[in-house]
Amino acid sequence: MPLEWSGLSPDLLLDIDRDGGGPLRSQLERQIRDAIRTQRLRVGERLPSTRALARTLGLSRGLVQDCYAQLQAEGYLVARPGAATQVAAGAGVPAAPTPPPAAPPQLLADFRWGVPDLSAFPLSDWMWATRDAARTLPTAALDYGDPRGSAALREVLAGYLRRVRAAAADPERIVICSGYAQGLGLALRALARTGVHTAAYEDPGSPATVSSTMSWAGLSAVPVPVDAHGIDVRALAATGARAVVVTPAHQWPTGVVMSPERRLALIEWARHRDAVIIEDDYDAEFRYDREPVGALQGLAPDRVISMGTVSKSLAPALRLGWMLCPPALAEHITTHKQLNDRGSPTLDQLALARMIESGRFDRHLRRMRTAYAARRTALVTALAAHAPEARVTGLAAGFHAVVHLGGSADEQTVIATARARSVGLYGMRACRTAPAAQETQLVLGFGNVGERALTAGIAAVGDLLRGERPGPARPGPRSRPGPP
Asked: Which helix H or strand E contains 23, and what residues bound it?
């Protein structure tokens, strides 16, 4: 797509050799001609005005005008009265035709996990917060700042996390990061620097993300099983690890809540082993059928790195997160953040601070709790109607559920058959370190699926969820049944 310049003259890099390079006009013609032939200048792109190019290259304007006229005569350039000179259509060596990328298939319902309702992003509130932050932005804030992040956001976050997550939040030990992935990498690199060699993670969990990040940080990664009470602390103790990544408030992906007894046992393990717990507090804002569960960090701030983001509460594209750091690791993590990217974007941080302190963030969360609760109910109702044999777990919080299939259903067959029916289903196998000889389980995300699409999608694959042998593919509709 050609650039638009709003009346300004664009720059163009050309090199004129005044010492034996030949006539200046010939050099100029040749360089512009070559730039068009090699598609450094594309069809429709503007060239500088003759006056601007002459001034830049130290040439006479008449020479540049003669050059442009010659290239127009050759069909390389086109000019209209009152308009800029542009590269002509068909000029240069045409590129090999590139077929347009295939459009993704239109699904009746896509139960992809980990995605919030993107259409519900509070755009007007975010625009207001950004404008308000920019209006009061001091000039000094545009410089390289504290690698921990904006002091204003850290202060606001500390109050929010104390109030909502019962965290022991000190703004001096909060580090703003670019989402969970960066935060995890910073934490693991800091631990490696302090002598940790082995780290553990939950199984099932996020093996691809966590194990690869541990490897990048120079740590050995070991999986530890999860049961109905959370991570198995006895199995963890047998690994020799001195760090572990857990999701205690709503275990990913099983959805179990770590029991109080297991929490205390995990903290005791950390103190006995001189170990660190990395808490991924990924969707604790959304609870439905029980009282909110506080952050594990509030029980042992000297042993827990607690990480949160706005990826589930607002949108993943914002790439904003935070880390509550133990005193012994705060400086190490800050150093790695400084080396990694010198700090996260300041204006976005200030906008988030304004969202929280103005109450707009809480208002958005209340609205989304209601919306996700309604979708959760719609999912349970649809499964009861079309696959009553399927057991559903993991619905205490968040916006995904685990569906346990009956019979001898094969995960990949179910997923492939559902895709042929225009329904996106996703299996538990991707969440396990190694294939397990257990019943087939699906992880269904409903955050970005509307109630009508959700109900229609479950109806279309009800026989698969009942564990029946897949029948012939049913053609899906050409469009979604109503708004998502």
From this structure: none
